Amino acid sequence: MAGFFRQRSCRIWDTYGKMIARNLKVPAGSFFLFGPRGTGKSTWIRETLPDALHVDLLRESTYVELIGHAGRLEAMADARGTRTVVIDEVQKLPQLLDEVHRLIEGRGFTFGLTGSSARKLRRSGVNLLAGRAQTLSFHPFTATELGDRFNLEHAIQFGLLPTVVAKGAREDAWDYLRGYVGTYLREEVQQEALVRNLGAFHRFLEAASFSQASPLNIQSVASDCGIARKTAESHFDLLEDLLLAVRLPVFRRRALRKLASHPKFFFFDAGVYRALRPRGPLDSDAEIDGAAIETLLFQSVRAECANLDLEYELSYWRTADGLEVDLVAYGPLGLHGFELKRSSRFREADLDGLRAFCADYPEAQGHLLYGGSTSYRFGAIEVVPLGEGLRCLPMWLQGRADLGRALTPR
């Protein structure tokens, strides 16, 4: 199953024949790099650390060689003449981390440790290097990374996993996404024996997809797929451990109103969500597209915060009487509220949620992204076309007008 990603992992090239750079910068010392499979971790780390010894634990021969002989890691590096080592999918062999720790402390080695699951590392109580390695997150592409290659319609339909962007063609992208979902089911769930009933888990994934970008009712999901609530809760925990999904809490700081209680739920990529979401004659395009567009915003803000090392906490805001802000980013650099409207026509009523939020939090900046082509500003709230807004995220989140054009009322 690992071969699915190894065979299909693609480098994405710009029009000048150079590989498209990711915005994440490599730290000076050792680091963990966590992200879902297929996001391009291995490609990025090989390009970033080309002279390092690369140890791929998805390769069976390498795994077998090291499983009982962790000390060989040092000998392999010495033979290569390097003190920089990359270990791909380190969660496959957590006991290696004791040797990694020794080599960092005793010989001044630098390690890049990638993983697509933090589950084994957390639950096995292994040595996590006692803070000697920074933890980074890796995500699908962003609009700012892709530049002129960014295609908004394609991103809404198929997401921003590197192979999906590289394939371009609709049928190829869709085939990859269906295989991606199937590979996770087989490899990460079945082979690791993380659930007992794979069929029930598949039904759970489909039921969970109906909660995409919506407040999550775990009991409702459990009823829809015929499992106990406790089982559904453990399945949601598993999705987060495998970095496949996120539960977004309600923003409650200095709350002035009665707020919703349930978190929102997101699969990590719009294309992965669509591949899991069943579709039939009773499912409207507007319902599915709306969730996909909100997912695109969520994954883009999340990726920009990780790439730029911005310490934002992400949440959403929803009052008991229905006023809502789709996404809230709160951190040392500011407070931002993001609202999405898929319509190509802007109406003043679309600002109701953001206006209420900014009234409760005068420090906030509001951003409404919509399907039209004209930009507006209303005090602390700016209204911009969706594609333009995705490109402005670094400027907004860093509070820097020099990162993009200053928006003016039109």
Report on this structure:
This protein is of the alpha/beta class and 410 residues long. It has helices at 2-8, 41-48, 60-67, 72-80, 96-107, 119-123, 143-146, 152-158, 162-167, 170-191, 198-209, 218-225, 229-241, 270-276, 285-307, 352-360, 386-398, and strands spanning 31-34, 53-56, 84-88, 110-115, 134-137, 214-215, 245-248, 264-267, 313-318, 324-331, 334-341, 365-370, 376-378, 381-385.
CATH architecture of the largest domain: Orthogonal Bundle
How many β-strand runs?
A: 14
Evaluate the radius of gyration: 22 Å
Averaged pLDDT: 88
CATH homologous superfamily of the largest domain - what is it?
Winged helix-like DNA-binding domain superfamily/Winged helix DNA-binding domain
Determine the number of helices (DSSP H or I, runs of at least 4 residues): 17
- State the name of the first-level CATH class of the largest domain: Mainly Alpha
- Major β-sheet profile: 6 strands, mixed
> How far apart, in Å, are the first and last alpha carbons?
53 Å
The strand order across the widest sheet is 9-10-11-12-14-13
Summarize the structure.
This protein has helices at residues 2-8, 41-48, 60-67, 72-80, 96-107, 119-123, 143-146, 152-158, 162-167, 170-191, 198-209, 218-225, 229-241, 270-276, 285-307, 352-360, 386-398, and strands spanning 31-34, 53-56, 84-88, 110-115, 134-137, 214-215, 245-248, 264-267, 313-318, 324-331, 334-341, 365-370, 376-378, 381-385.
